[in-house]
Write a structure and sequence with these properties.
This protein is of the alpha/beta class. Helix content is 37%, strand content 16%. It contains 17 helices and 17 strands. A 10-stranded mixed sheet has the order 12-11-9-8-7-5-14-15-16-17. It has a 3-stranded antiparallel sheet with strand order 1-2-3, sandwiched between helices. The model has no long low-confidence stretch (mean pLDDT 90).
Length: 473
Amino acid sequence: MNQKPFIHTFKAGKSYFIYDVNTDKILKVNAAVYNYLNKIEHNLEKESDWNIEIEDEINTLINYGFLKNKRVSKTMHPETKYIKYHIENNLSSIILQVTQNCNLRCDYCIYSGSYSNRVHTNKRMNIDVAKRSIDYLIKNSSQLNEVSVGFYGGEPLLEFDLIKQIVEYVKVVGEGKEIYFNLTTNATLFNEEIIEFFVKNNITTMISLDGGKEIHDKSRKFANTGEGSHDVVLKNVRYIKNKYPEHYKKNITFNTVINSENDYISIDDFISKNETLKDSNFLASTLNNNYSDKEIVSSDEYILGKSYDRFLTLLNKLKFIKDESMSPLSRIERALLDDFRYEKNIEGRLELPDVWHHGGPCIPGAFRIFVTTDGEFFPCERVSESSKMGMIGNLDSGVDIEKAEKLLNIGKLYEEQCSDCWAYSYCDICIAKIDDTKCNENEIKPHDCDRIRHSTENNMKDYCVLKSLGYQY
């Protein structure tokens, strides 16, 4: 058993802090206590470091319930005993892969043929598979008044006629429920008929747009000509915004896939200063090396630009910069920073449970199901279709409870590595982030640990600095 207190030490500005893992609290301490506990954390303590002042401070912390050495002894997700009920009654979303084909070939898109997890094919979902998928959603959402149906590809607008049939079918069999529709698209195939249908049926659309023309066209090219798609996307976006401004404001969201080899500031500037886009809703996802043989190395320009954007975010929290001056790319990050300690400050805990699991996995087959063109089930669209572990069932047999339970408890596959990790409570690892399609479950290892610890510590530092400057969370 590890007898060391379960803590993590860090500095923020000129102040010293410890993160007490058992209570999930961040404590400000003096330099002497910090130096002593820092050496304990890193196995560097010496008897000469001990003195009466430190003894008094340490005893005070212990008396208030801090500095326990307890670790989680068994990995088990708390929802495991309810998983069958959730799968059979609480399915909230189904995502239909209406086609595996696409009219673009994106060099670094994680769903393109450049990666090992997916390739474009001519496979398309037939109406029978689509209807059976919707029937499954309705049947397994008996405890929910609201459900969503998503359309995914490839490029789903290649199958617009099928989408229309599905929407009309959902309205019939889903009567009595509030049904939300969403679609992820490259936006090159929009026309008046499609746009009118989306407006009429209140379909939420996520449009892929990677920045200015040079950056976007470098990777998002038409399959038949090799030309970039940027101008077509912007033309269609402007049309929607001008003709249907309310629908645009409420239903159009953009996803910027950021290659960290590029210059972050140039992407940020394009979105912030473009008249059509500057008030739009943006999400940003950064490319990673998962499923790819190519290693992505962040450029100096990206690191500098991203750090500066984070700095502006902190100034915004302190009211030195107005919200309207902030980049659309930073909106999600600003919200995440506010939420970083929200539930933890409300709930709290006295110590780690004996049996627990980090918060990375959602409940497979309950929160959402990704249905392939052939009717196979995966926990979400980010899980590789080549993954034997990730495939949790199909339309014929439903969700395999045993496989879903195994993915919910993915931490069991590497619990020895994680039981002593101070960032365990902030871990977001799930099957989509660790399965490279080649290894079996005995070889599964999380490879995002350094990123999680680094980002968690940085968030804690920013949190402490903002609090010290009077920001109210």
